[in-house]
Write a sequence for this structure.
């Protein structure tokens, strides 16, 4: 059953990824329900301001300042008290300077650990060189050049047979022509295998709602055809050739196809996907999977909310297995001030909830980052004065570096051991708070354990 749910979700993701290529530029009035569905499914999630913002990051210099925090609580054997304490008392801060046009960047990442230890790490990029620096490792940057990588690995007595001398990152980028070919290739599979009779259009509360209903068996057939095309796709195979063995890639795809074919598909199990359109703008995508008893065992919801200043995407996934184990993932990405294309505040929230007969867990990650564009930005490069460049280092220099790292990491471990030894009797688990958090799992079947509407961006 879990495989069925995962495969169903995978199909939806594939539809989202390639469906937008089917969009016509004519008025919606001349499109069939299938054409409308495929066009809005992907193109409706795109945003012109977001594309401008990404393009500006590629061409102009900017600074960033942010943080990452994790909160966790639960009654799960996989999360012991020490792990919970570490997660809840830790924070990561980010501060950097980026100039992608000049291929220069510097980012200082500071891990504020629960043991009272702050670990600042600076990562710097200078063209084809990338380095890392931390007082816990070395007083200089430890850097690698994107050249002679085979020789570098051989210095450390590592297998270099499957590693190129240089990784061609530009080669891995898709050209406009390649994107056009890929869209046509995969959309044709959807067009040929989705019947017009499977689509229905209606008007609900002023919104146009287009629904696709197909059986699990039909879904599996489409997925197999997509995977078969992917397995032999010359564009994809060329992109992965430097880092992935083509034969192994094809073998993995064949294994996935065999697994799908081995699943006992049921014509009575159905997948329903709905797109909500208002004033020719996509507002929401909903997908649900029901078993032969018409019980909802999987749900996916994607929303896009936009006003004059901000843009927000939200994704919610809920899965219930045969043994009543429930898993939910909530993801939200918000861009504040994106209309101004400066001082853009990126806010990301990810929450994972699990619940079964005995245990329940909730883990949340919150990321905040502000990007400020500026024309006066200086970023130092990487050279032999401020870095040990591993490609050029002698055996003696490498041995000295490894000994320094070993000694400093050993000191850090001694400090952590001392902290936890003195605190191993403390009980920091807030059981009452977690007990009162049971509202995260609503028992109302119609809401499928979580009320989407209350947590949607439109109602915040």
């Amino acid at each position: 059953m879990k495989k069925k749910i995962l495969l169903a979700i995978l199909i939806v993701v594939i539809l989202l990824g390639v469906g937008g290529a089917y969009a016509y530029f004519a008025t919606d009035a001349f499109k069939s329900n299938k054409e409308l569905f495929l066009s809005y499914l992907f193109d409706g999630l795109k945003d012109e301001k977001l594309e401008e913002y990404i393009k500006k990051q590629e061409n102009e210099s900017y600074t960033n300042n942010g943080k990452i925090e994790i909160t966790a609580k639960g009654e799960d054997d996989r999360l012991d008290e020490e792990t919970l304490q570490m997660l809840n008392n830790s924070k990561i801060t980010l501060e950097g300077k980026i100039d992608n046009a000049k291929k220069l960047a510097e980012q200082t990442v500071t891990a504020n650990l629960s043991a009272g230890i702050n670990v600042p790490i600076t990562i710097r990029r200078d063209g084809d060189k990338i380095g890392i620096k931390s007082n816990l490792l070395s007083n200089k940057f430890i850097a690698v050049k994107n050249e002679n990588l085979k020789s570098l690995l051989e210095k450390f007595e590592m297998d270099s047979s499957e590693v190129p001398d240089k990784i061609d990152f530009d080669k891995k980028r898709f050209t406009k022509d390649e994107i056009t070919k890929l869209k046509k290739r995969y959309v044709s599979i959807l067009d040929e295998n989705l019947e017009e009779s499977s689509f229905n259009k209606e008007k609900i509360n002023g919104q146009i709602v287009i629904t696709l209903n197909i059986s699990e068996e039909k879904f599996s057939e489409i997925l197999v055809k997509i995977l078969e095309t992917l397995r032999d796709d010359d564009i994809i195979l060329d992109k992965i050739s430097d880092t992935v063995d083509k034969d192994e890639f094809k073998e993995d795809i064949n294994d996935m196809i065999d697994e799908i074919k081995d699943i006992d598909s049921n014509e009575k199990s159905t997948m329903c996907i709905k797109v909500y359109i208002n004033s020719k703008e996509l507002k929401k995508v909903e997908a649900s999977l029901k078993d032969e008893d018409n019980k909802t065992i999987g749900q996916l919801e994607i929303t896009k909310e936009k006003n004059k200043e901000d843009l927000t995407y939200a994704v919610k996934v809920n899965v219930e297995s045969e043994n009543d184990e429930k898993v939910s993932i909530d993801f939200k990405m918000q861009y504040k001030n994106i209309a101004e294309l400066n001082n853009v505040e990126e806010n990301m929230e990810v929450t994972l909830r699990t619940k079964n007969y005995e245990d329940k867990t909730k883990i949340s990650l919150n990321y905040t980052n502000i990007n400020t564009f500026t024309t006066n930005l200086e970023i130092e490069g990487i050279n032999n004065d401020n870095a040990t460049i591993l490609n050029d280092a002698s055996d003696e220099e490498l041995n000295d570096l490894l000994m320094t790292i070993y000694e400093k990491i050993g000191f850090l471990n001694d400090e952590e051991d001392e902290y936890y030894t003195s605190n191993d009797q403390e009980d920091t688990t807030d059981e009452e708070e977690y007990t009162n958090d049971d509202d995260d799992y609503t028992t109302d079947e119609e809401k499928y354990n979580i009320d989407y509407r209350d947590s949607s961006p439109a109602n915040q």
The CA atoms of residues 56 and 341 lie 8 Å apart. The first strand starts at residue 62 and ends at 74. The first helix runs from residue 2 to 18.
